[in-house]
Every structure is written in C-alpha cells, then in structure tokens.
Amino acid sequence: NAGVMQNPRHLVRRRGQEARLRCSPMKGHSHVYWYRQLPEEGLKFMVYLQKENIIDESGMPKERFSAEFPKEGPSILRIQQVVRGDSAAYFCASSLTVTSGRDDTQYFGPGTRLTVL
Amino acid sequence: KQEVTQIPAALSVPEGENLVLNCSFTDSAIYNLQWFRQDPGKGLTSLLLIQSSQREQTSGRLNASLDKSSGRSTLYIAASQPGDSATYLCAVRREGFQKLVFGTGTRLLVSP
Fold first, then answer.
1. pLDDT tens digits along B24-33
2. Bond into A70 cis (ω within 30)
3. Are B101 and B5 in contact (CB under 8 A)?
4. Is residue B84 helix, strand or coil?
5. CA of B4 vs chain A CAs: smallest distance (Å)
6. What is the pLDDT of residues B46-77, one digit of tens each?
7. Contact B98 A35 (CB under 8 A)
8. How far is the alpha carbon of A104 from chain B, nearest alpha carbon, in Å?
9. What are phi and psi of A31, to 5 degrees?
10. What residues of chain A lie within 8 A of the CB of B46, using their CB?
11. Residue A109 in contact with partner chain B when CB distance is under 8 A
C-alpha cells in the first residue's frame, strides 16, 4: 500500500503566479488534511476535506488559498497570486477514518516545498 | 485555544543513552495524541498514537505515556542510536475536531 503521495516535491514560483499542490491519499482513505510549515515555525493546520466536501477550513488564509478533493483524482491546494510569505513546506495527510475503533492515524506525505521568488 | 509546548527545544546526547522528550498541552479535552519524527527536508513519520483513554503505547525502543489530566505526554527513547537523530513532534487532536495541533518540536542529535 503506497503511502501518501505529493507532487511536485519542489515548486518555484515568481510573485503573482499560481501554485498548485497535489496530494494523493493512501488507498482507501477518504479524509485529507493540509498543513503548512513556515521556515523556523511549527506545522499549522490549514484545511480538512472529505470527498467533494470541505469540512474544516479554519486554518486557511481568507484570500488566495483554496482546496478541493474531487470525487476522482487527487486533492489540490491552490494558491493564487503567490507572495514571498507563502514560501513554506506544505504537507498533506490522510486517514482511513476519524473515529476510534479503526485506524484514525493521520499519515503524512513527504511535502511540497514552495519557494516564491 | 489549544497550545502545545515541547521541552527541550534541542537535545544532544551520546549514543546509548536513554532519554525523555516532553510535551505539554493546555486543554485536557483531547481525543488522542500522536508522536512524529521529522528528518531534515522530509515528511513526518508517525511513531505512536495514544488514545485519550490510554496511558501509554510502546513500539520497539519507544514508549509514550499520556497523563491527560495534567496535560502531559512523554516520549521515552531507550538506548539511543545516531539514526534516532531527527526532530520529534507531538500533536494533539481535540475532542470534536479532526485537525492536529502541533508542538514546536525537539531537535535530537545522537552522537556516535
């Protein structure tokens, strides 16, 4: 069973461009989470999605950021009009479930390192 | 608001030592607590997950304990090895929520 996959692993954008980060959850997992790790800071939650639904976006910046998890295909984190402050590592995680009794561990991908020039 | 703190921020030990990493959280209404390992430039590897009803979990040389009422967890690493060098993160999931709140991490260096 392949782990959580993210691509690209490294992404360089100039200010004002768009960044698209992709996350393929582990097989059978329908819960996806995005976290951001700014330089010299801890990981911060951004958004939690189930298939076709955003469940919790309390950590998402109000502007320029959006996320989706379509019925088919990977989850996408989209950042429009990137600025230098968006430079960070973006991690995706997935879980089988969110309730105990089954595996509700969040498994993390290798991350996408975004650099904004 | 849940806040998670890890002490020490950095730790350097010689190979073979037993060591303890600490994690404290301000809101005891947690659902579970996870310990992760992060290698430089890499993703997170889940080490142990403790449900709120449990007191400890063990995996190989690792043992994690949870004292929910006092808002503390410890990660015990026995007979440390250079390959254990990494940043260790604890993360708390609150009851009723799915997101993890991460601590600031402990950077561990084990010297041969």
1. 999 989 999 9
2. no
3. no
4. helix
5. 10
6. 999 999 999 999 999 999 999 999 999 999 99
7. no
8. 9
9. -115, 125
10. 105-108
11. yes
